[in-house]
Design a protein that fits this description.
163 residues; mainly alpha
Length: 163
Amino acid sequence: MHTPDTPEAAPRKSRLVEAAEAFMAITLALMVIAVFSNVVLRYAFDTGLVIYEELSRLLFVWLVCIGTIVAAAEDKHLAFTLVVDRLGPRMLRHCRRLASALGLAILGMIAKGAWDQVLAGMHSFSPVMGYPLALGSAAILLMAAVMMILLLKEAAPLFGFHR
């Protein structure tokens, strides 16, 4: 029995979301160490490590993309619902179909652009660390692909597809 005084147990997160959150925590810790070390080196010793700049830039891209996936999986993206909250059930269903179709189209364009950048970056390498520049675009490609899958799963009932 749930009363206002008893805390309700939070639903268990999937192992994939937990792994993504652990990845984000490690990535953030590495970024903080790299950037803080560089700041100390620059101000105290008038030098810096260029490798830390490249590393923190790459880690930031992956952190943002994985964070976006986690937010989508947990349905935590911001939504402006002022208009749709006032719609009737039938019009709401049409708006959700339209929003899903537009979302899939936009994610498809993002995925296509990211794929093109992955192909272009396969033979280009970062100047200091030497990693393929495709790694940054791969994060965006992964983000778009996973978000398309999540959106398809969410929108399937709107279009008459059931499990």
